# Entry
Amino acid sequence: MTAHRMSNNTISKGIDWSMIILYALLVSIGLLMIFANEYKEGENIWQPIFSQNKDYGKQVLWMGVCAILGTFILLTDSKFFTATANILYVFGVLLCIAALFVGSEVKGSRSWLVLGGFRLQPSELCKVFTCLALAKFISRQETDFGKTNSQLIGAGISLLPAVITLAQNETGLALVYFSFFLVMYREGLPPFILILGFTLAVILILSLIFSPQTLFIVYAVVAAFVIFLTRGLFKRNRVLLWVIIGAWALASIISSIAMPYLINHVMKPYQRDRIYSLVGKPYVPQNLEERAELEKQKSKTKSKSHNQSEYNVIQSKIAIGSGGLFGKGYLKGTQTRYDFVPEQRTDFIFCTVGEGFGFIGSLIFLSLYAILLFRIVMIAERQRSTFSRVYAYGVASIFFFHITINICMTIGLAPVIGIPLPLISYGGSSLLTFTLLLFILIRLDADRQMILR
Amino acid sequence: MPVFNQSRKRFIQGIFIIVFLVIIGQLFHLQILSDEYGIAADRNALTKKIAYPSRGIIYDSKGRTILDNVSRFDLMVTPSQVKGADTVALCNLLQIDTAEFNKRIITAIIKNGRYRPSLFEPFITTQLQAQLTENMYKFSGFDLLDRPVRTYPYKAAAHILGYVGEVDTAIIRKSGYFYQMGDLVGRSGLEKFYEPVLMGQRGINYLVKDNKNRIQGSYKKGIFDTAAEAGRSLHISVDIELQKIAEKLLQHKIGAVVAINPKTGGILAMASGPSYFPGDLAGAEFRKNWAKLALDTARPLYNRAIKGQYPPGSTFKPLGALIALNEGLMTPSFGYGCSGAYYACRGIKVRCTHYGNGHASNLRVALANSCNSYFLHIFRMAIDNPKDNNTIKGYLRWKAYMNSFGLGVKTGIDLPSEDYASVPDTSRYNKDFGGSRRWNSCNVVTLGIGQDRMTATPLQLANMMSIIANRGYYYTPHLVDSIQDENAGDSVYLGKYRVRHNVTNIPDSSYQAVIEGMHDVTVYGTADFLHVPGVEYCAKTGTAQNPHGKNHSIFTCFAPKDNPRIAVSVVVENAGYGATWAGPIATLMLEKYLNDSLSPRSSAKLEKVSKADLIPAAIKHWYYLRDSTRNARLGVKEVNVDTIIEQPIVVPKKTTFDPEAEPERNDSSGETNLEKTPMMLPAENKQENDSTQNE
# Structure
């Protein structure tokens, strides 16, 4: 009896319960959303859980698996993760490479390993291992992350799985690895790299979505605002003013001249079509020859995938937009219940929230994520060990990247790259990965007084 | 451990906040600011299924159904869903080929777009419907739509009942987009006038569909659905048997018959010739026949009973007498010395059919003999009324009488596009003669015998007759007696038909004088040879001069003389004297209605009259041309012998014959009568020329 309580105490000691509650809340919401997509009136609700013939039934099973896995992780000694970080990383990279060669192809990407009846996407799991490995590298005593050399190694560790994943034709997952730059920034990466990369990405996406004229005005407003904020510094540093003006000019040139030139003169029509459809905009061929070429290309490839993503975004926007202020109510969304939004249980799960619960519901939902992210950052900052802190920032960055890109693509602000919404989207690999990420963090946090290396 | 770079935490948190704010901003834009997404979602998932109610039924005065519905089905197609449909099986069922199938699909896409149902094949027969229903699962994208079709058990009263047709864009716009493309709407007759009553309430069921257009059930458990309500029935005053006789009598004639019950104003029969079989414009037949009927030069779609404008001729005379009597300008014993023509106006001579002494010695005799001089004289008395001593004022006073008798104004019958014919205003004559002081009673004197610029519709004539029959009052002529489940709102339609109108206070004695004269018409006057067994009736013949051809034959009458129950007016175009053709038609109508059956002699007369062909030659010629061009187009070689004999073609024979050179030759007629079809002519002619040149 006493022993039992003792052991109980050792598991639960130092555990951040708010994280577990948030986790449970999000996973439950996810299950309800998947259920809302699949449920048809008059059907037996419980039967699919046993027969496993529906996605929400399978998700229940995955939740069980994750609960067990989570418990095991909490029971594991924190030192295990620091000790095995590098081995796990190598193991993960090897798995990814294995998937590239012996994996089975699903929707055009060779990223799945099939073991018996069990399918696994190693590049999902590899995020956890990369996060651990990066933490391990930075927390090494001999590493001085202020040095360019270390920064290059850190970038290398982060981007190696990305390169393999890109080779697997999983662009979305590959891009996730770029979120580690946020961690590296926290640990001493010069800010201009982050700002430059981030700004460039934003400008490129914006150039696709909005017209050059609109962007020109937006950039001007932003530049004027920045000049206004930093006006006190100009007396000492004249160069700053010119840097800001130069940045504004560069951004304008990219959006108004470089991008249109690149798209209209360098790319082939079908590539243009593909690029535009990523953001849900139809591409209108400019002349007859181009149109003919496009038609030819389309009939040759016979693939509708690029047009599909355009349709997806439009339907997704319709679903979310039709939710209005308060939403149509749970199980009452016509767009999501009657399959107008494709991929709606995986990549477009946010539509169900937006349609069913409207602006208010979406706001509450987003605030759950915001609380989670801020909580992780808070946890990160209270770690004594660099390893734990870097790891925590890694978790925050991965979550942040997934949430942002996923939701932005459902509302037409980001290209459609298929990455799941953490803890909400249907899918075992994804749920498993995020559970691992979070529970390792909770475990490390429980031992925050320790110095782990 | 005090971590360096800790301030960067703020920056990372800042990025989180900015990105979340951007997301919230876009959500605000999508969910709050734009409402097109809600509409788009509804358009995606909701589909309206319209249930067409059956149109109201029409019963005659004895409760017989004269307009009914039968169920027919339309085959609808939604082109976007026709993937994988068994087109060959469908083509076989409909007996069309694949090319026709594709053509119809393309037409549907052009008309209504890919995603909305369009008509594929209208009015499927019951048998075909059964076969289609059985195999419907094979024909994805096709749907059967129940559409009741009009049917006419008595095959009569086409002009009264009207027809229904598909709405056009003008009607849709006028209805405020209540109607949709493909809806049927009353296009003429009662169908049009009582459209809101007959149409009923369309039912709308909102259904939810999924991305593959499969129906998933009703939207929000049907709280927005409305049930279809059948159209309400109409009971009309027409006696269908009388109507059928009227139509039979008007066969092969151009004209109109109107019979009114003077006691109620209800129309007992109203026929217009030439007519058409109402079933020719119902359902699938409409497409085939409408254009042909609409282009027919005799205008069978035109209801001459309410739209035909004819000079009333002598049938106007009783009204002229009433005006003069009421104005105190004469008494019933007033006589006029007529010697066969009216000479009182310089430069104008109006002939009278009688010249014997005393044929206009008093009103009764003058009416019976229909003396023109007498009524021209009393008309001039009315215009040159000593009360006014002014042509314009006198004319206006006279015109007021006319209008109160329903001439020159619409009667207000419950049929669309009624004409008010013409009782000209003074302005008209001012224009004709170049000023208000430039004309007098002499210039317009033939108005007194219902000519000049005066015209009236057969309905107006019948209404005038019922006013005289009633001795001074009338009910607005109407067809509908009552509407099924009549409610307060229906008074819009029926209210005005239940109000008695009194026509100026002309004393009964004046009416009595006129009625006696009209009775004498049938005893020894212009219609003395027309009898209705066992009934004393009053009548007035009319022979309207027609500048375009033979005179119109007009006959107005009512019966019985005392306590009248029916007033009839008949106009037969280009048929000569009023008593010749219009008279027998009218008296047969009286006999049928009052005696409920025809005597054997009358039956024989009915057959004779109905067989008489009074269509003018010009119109027959038009038919001939139309048929021959059609035959030529179709390559038909048979030639109708009758038409050839009727239209002999004279071809002058050209000859180079020189009598001096060939004195023996006997061929000097120079002209040959050829009875050949025009088609054969040129070749024949050429041959003739060739042969003569060879000689």
The first helix of chain A runs from residue 2 to 12. Chain A touches chain B through 49 residues (CB under 8 Å). The radius of gyration of chain A is 24 Å. The mean pLDDT of chain A is 84.
